[in-house]
Design brief:
It is built from 5 helices and no strands. It has about 130 residues and is mainly alpha-helical. The termini are far apart. It has one domain: YjbJ (Protein Yjbj, Chain: A), CATH 1.10.1470.10.
């Protein structure tokens, strides 16, 4: 078969619905039997539909190319989001660093106050047990 049988096999769960839509005469059993064997799948589709083998192979290859493209776009979007989140985190860290550097006494007192409140809360919760 032209194309990459491993790609079709790895994407088959996602492509099943597309195959059923494209070739409505296929049953769930037709598609279930084919897991792991692309050549058998093409043979089964050819017998059920009467389409030429080359046409079926082209449709399956196109389906996998579309699936790969969608995955690439999703990965690109996630990468972009991660980059933006990293930039925002660096910016906020820089601002916090500047705040502490500009107001060291206030920062230390704030941290001590937070620690004191947290200690009181933990102490009271342990006392009531």
């Amino acid at each position: 078969m032209s194309g990459n049988p491993q790609t079709i096999q790895s994407q088959w769960h996602a492509l099943r619905s597309e195959a059923k839509e494209r070739w409505g005469q296929l049953t769930d059993d037709d598609l279930r039997v084919q897991l792991g064997n692309v050549d058998q799948l093409v043979d089964r589709i050819q017998k059920r539909t009467g389409e030429a083998r080359e046409a079926i192979e082209k449709v399956l290859s196109d389906m996998t190319a579309q699936g790969s493209s969608a995955v690439s776009h999703a990965a690109e979007a996630v990468g972009h989001f991660a980059h933006q989140a990293g930039e925002q985190a660096r910016e906020r860290y820089g601002r916090a660093e500047d705040l502490v550097r500009d107001n060291p006494t206030r920062s230390v007192l704030a941290i001590l106050g937070i620690g004191l409140v947290a200690g009181l809360i933990v102490g009271l919760s342990l006392r009531h047990r």
